[in-house]
Fold this sequence. Notes:
One of its GO terms (biological process) is cyclic threonylcarbamoyladenosine biosynthetic process. Keywords: Nucleotidyltransferase, Transferase. Residues 1-58 form the ThiS-like ubiquitin domain. This protein is an alpha/beta fold. The chain folds into two domains: 2-60, Ubiquitin-like (UB roll), CATH 3.10.20; 79-263, NAD(P)-binding Rossmann-like Domain (Rossmann fold), CATH 3.40.50. The protein is 33% helix and 21% strand. The radius of gyration is 21 Å and the shape is elongated. The protein starts with a strand and ends in a 6-residue tail after the last helix. The mean pLDDT is 92.
Amino acid sequence: MNIYINGKSRTTEYCSLYLLRKKLFLEASNIITIYNGFQTENDIELKEGDSISFIEKGVMPSEDELEALMMARHTPFVHEKVKSARVGIAGLGGLGSSVAVALARTGIGHLHLVDFDIVEPSNLNRQAYKISHLGMKKTEALKSEIKDINPYIKVSIDTIKVTEENAAILFENDSIVCEAFDKAEYKAMLINTLLENKPGIKLVSASGLAGYESSNSITTTKVFNNLYLCGDRKSNAEPGRGLMAPRVSICAGHQANMILRLILGVKEV
């Protein structure tokens, strides 16, 4: 029968997952098995067209093997669309850095990171940076972090402040943009500028994610065509209500998931 092993079509006479694994790997205890998108240790009867990935623990896979593993986890049709997508992220603080990491783990083909700032100690309570990144430009630090997650993702950076004058040019090649600024006036500037100058662009914005109020109050809303808003719309950062990792991460997860849905052609929340 014909099956796929680590993304490549193979013909096999073995009818069970156990026998196939034993044939390919004499020592199977060091092998993780993904069968049609699910990790399993069970013996399963193989069928025509099954997709199987064998992962050797502690070994860096090649680009082809890593892509096959991502495809096995995400299903082929999802992975193909994600791999061909490009997303711009405006602002690499708590939201933007977390969105970038989530999309990198999803296997996004091209991430475009835009920020002018450096990593400083107060960022470490909620942003996807480490002590070793202190003093680095956020664009460069995050690019380095993404390389450690998936070195085969294309990452382009612009270390520059986004303004009304340069926003349309900066994001001219991005069909989807994540707005991840801290201040309301910058959020409004980016949204208004891009929607006015790039009518077909899709924007995923955020508002209301400070403090430690209920996670359930954070939602994703379609404001109007091509603009989506994540958050509770009211919990702004202020004295007595700071920005904290759990709620920031929840909102970033909403943004990343909405971006993924848009990549897959799902426009409803």
